[in-house]
Each structure stands twice: as structure tokens, then as C-alpha cells.
Design goal:
Elements: E1 4-10, H1 16-25, E2 29-31, H2 35-44, H3 50-53, H4 55-75, E3 80-84, H5 87-96, H6 103-111, E4 116-120, H7 137-153, E5 158-160, H8 166-175
Parallel strand pairs: 1-3, 1-4, 2-3, 4-5
Helix pairs in contact: 1-8, 4-5, 5-6, 5-7
């Protein structure tokens, strides 16, 4: 059975998780964003923002988690699995932070290929900062640009999801899967 791995990505505060939640409610298998969990675990250890303190360590943890999710999606009995962010997101954020990283980060992106990638654009009207999202809206726009560049670097054709209600955005994605 062919397993279709579908990434929903975009800069911070673009509504990714809300869209993923709607798709999950519609019966799709959806694997959650893991960076919040990594951040929360670091905060429990007294590190307020691990990405800011040690971007490479944070990114290694994300890379491991995203590879694990990729493998989980590959082996899932359902033939379509949505992922809230993909492996190239890790490289995009490191590039955004102007952080050098070992070659195995790029190798992981090349070796673990997704079938479709949906990109949610920056949308100021819905953007909110919180304890795990430290970026301002201008930084979110820059991150979006790095995400788009990273996915294109690894050969992906991105489908941009238009702004609108969460339901309308989920409907758009369903039309193209």
C-alpha cells in the first residue's frame, strides 16, 4: 500500500495547528507539531527558549522527532497521513537563525521525502505570540520565506493555502489530496 505523507507548514502563527485539528476531526490521521513539546520539556529544565539558547541542540531534538514521525506515517495503516511541519522546517529555522549545522540535517531532508506540502502564508490578523512562540510578526514573515526556500531547495512544489476560515482552509487542502 502506498502511504501518502502530507505536510502542512508555514511560519509561526499561520493557523497550521488549527487546520490540522479540523482535518483530524474529519477523520484524517494527523501527527502533531513537536516543537512545542521540545520547548515545554526544556522549560521544565529551566531553559526558557531552547532554540534561542542552543539552536543546534533544539534542532537535533526536532530532527529526531520529525524523522520518527516520518517513519510512523510511512508505516501507518491509513494511506494518507498529515504532519504538522516536516523535516525541511528544521533546516529552514536553522538558516533563519544563521546557524551552521552538520550535513546530516540536509541529508535527512533529501532522504525522507513527503508526497505533498501545503504552505500557510503569514496572516497578521490571526497572529498571536505566546509562551512558546516568541517571534514577532515581521520575524514570522522572514521564517515563512526561509521555509519556502528550504522546501523548494529539496524539490517540493508548494501549494499555498489561502487565508480564510479554518474550515475553508481545510476544504482547500482536501480538494488537492
Amino acid at each position: 500500500m502506498s502511504h501518502k505523507k502530507i505536510v502542512i507548514t508555514g511560519g509561526p502563527g499561520t493557523g497550521k495547528t488549527s487546520v490540522v485539528d479540523i482535518l483530524k476531526d474529519r477523520g484524517y490521521i494527523c501527527l502533531p507539531e513537536i516543537s512545542r513539546q521540545v520547548t515545554i520539556e526544556a522549560q521544565k529544565q529551566g531553559i526558557d527558549q531552547l532554540f534561542l539558547k542552543d539552536p543546534l541542540l533544539f534542532s537535533k531534538k526536532l530532527l529526531e522527532g520529525r524523522i520518527s514521525q516520518f517513519n510512523q506515517a510511512t508505516n501507518h495503516p491509513e494511506n494518507r497521513v498529515f504532519l504538522d511541519r516536516g523535516i525541511p522546517d528544521v533546516v529552514a529555522y536553522l538558516d533563519y537563525a544563521n546557524q551552521d549545522y552538520p550535513a546530516y540535517f540536509s541529508e535527512a531532508c533529501a532522504e525522507h521525502c513527503y508526497d505533498q506540502v501545503f504552505l500557510l502564508p503569514p496572516w497578521e490578523e490571526i497572529y498571536i505570540s505566546d509562551n512558546e512562540r516568541y517571534e514577532n510578526f515581521e520575524q514570522a514573515i522572514l521564517i515563512h520565506d526561509y521555509l519556502e526556500a528550504a522546501y523548494k531547495k529539496f524539490g517540493y512544489q508548494l501549494l499555498e493555502v489561502p487565508t480564510g476560515t479554518v474550515t475553508a482552509r481545510a476544504d482547500f487542502i482536501e480538494k488537492f489530496i
